[in-house]
């Protein structure tokens, strides 16, 4: 797995890199202190995961995600921030983030969150969102969820891409289908899951510990 960490706080960046190297020694980790260098890196190499500081000195969080996608970044983007109000967390998910980790977490909580993210699961600070998570079914995959049994293979492809945080336009490009088709498939997914939109689907995946491949 190739991971890109983007943060303009050098000590935090180094600490996160150390944590990742302990959790998964074989990870390839690149770092960038600003969005300009981050864009250059994603143009040169493919990454599976991006850990993004929401408040960079040279770029807002929303603009950061847009610039990464415009540069062709297809990775799951997980936001890190010292700000943890529920409205902001929901906004990051609405913008396509595949998770959110508060910087104020203790080392133990940070490790647990990173383990979830590296395992392909969505991590959200449900205690901040006032939603207590039930025990996660370890290793459960979307395809094993009985609610999704009636979906087609293409609908599942769209679901997995959306759960990775890809916007509809990139999903359409990746799967070589029309953007309107992506929206139709997502509507079918949301109906099957009993949710109304991408944000609710992300919360549900986080609560249930669902792995996204």
Structure description:
The strands form two sheets. The protein has a five-stranded parallel beta sheet with strand order 2-1-3-6-7, sandwiched between helices. Strands 4-5 form a two-stranded antiparallel sheet. Helices cover 47% and strands 13% of the residues. The two termini are 13 Å apart. The model is unreliable at 131-143 (pLDDT under 50). It is globular. With 213 residues, the chain is of the alpha/beta class. A hairpin with a 2-residue loop joins strand 4 (55-56) and strand 5 (59-60). It is built from nine helices and seven strands; from the N terminus they run E-H-E-H-E-E-E-H-E-H-E-H-H-H-H-H. Residues 2-118 form the Response regulatory domain. Pfam families: GerE (PF00196), Response_reg (PF00072). The modification 4-aspartylphosphate is found at residue 53. Keywords: DNA-binding, Phosphoprotein. InterPro entries: CheY-like_superfamily, EvgA-like, NreC/VraR/RcsB-like_REC, Sig_transdc_resp-reg_C-effctor, Sig_transdc_resp-reg_receiver, Tscrpt_reg_LuxR_C, WH-like_DNA-bd_sf.
């Amino acid at each position: 797995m190739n991971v890109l960490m983007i943060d303009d706080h050098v000590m935090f960046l180094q600490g996160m890199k150390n944590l990742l190297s302990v959790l998964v020694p074989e990870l390839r980790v690149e770092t960038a202190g600003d969005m300009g260098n981050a864009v250059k890196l994603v143009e040169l190499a493919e990454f599976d995961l991006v850990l993004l500081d929401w408040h960079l000195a040279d770029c807002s969080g929303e603009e950061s995600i847009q610039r990464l996608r415009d540069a062709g970044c297809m990775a799951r983007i997980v936001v890190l921030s010292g700000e943890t109000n529920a409205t902001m967390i929901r906004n990051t998910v609405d913008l396509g983030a595949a998770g959110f980790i508060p910087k104020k977490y203790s080392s133990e909580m940070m490790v647990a969150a990173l383990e979830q993210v590296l395992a392909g699961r969505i991590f959200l600070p449900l205690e901040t969102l006032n939603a207590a998570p039930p025990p996660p079914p370890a290793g459960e995959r979307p395809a094993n969820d009985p609610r999704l049994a009636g979906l087609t293979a293409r609908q599942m492809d769209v679901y997995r891409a959306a759960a990775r945080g890809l916007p509809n336009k990139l999903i359409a490009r990746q799967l070589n289908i029309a953007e309107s088709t992506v929206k139709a498939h997502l509507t079918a997914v949301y109906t099957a899951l009993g949710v109304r939109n991408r944000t609710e689907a992300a919360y549900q995946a986080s609560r249930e510990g669902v792995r996204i491949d």
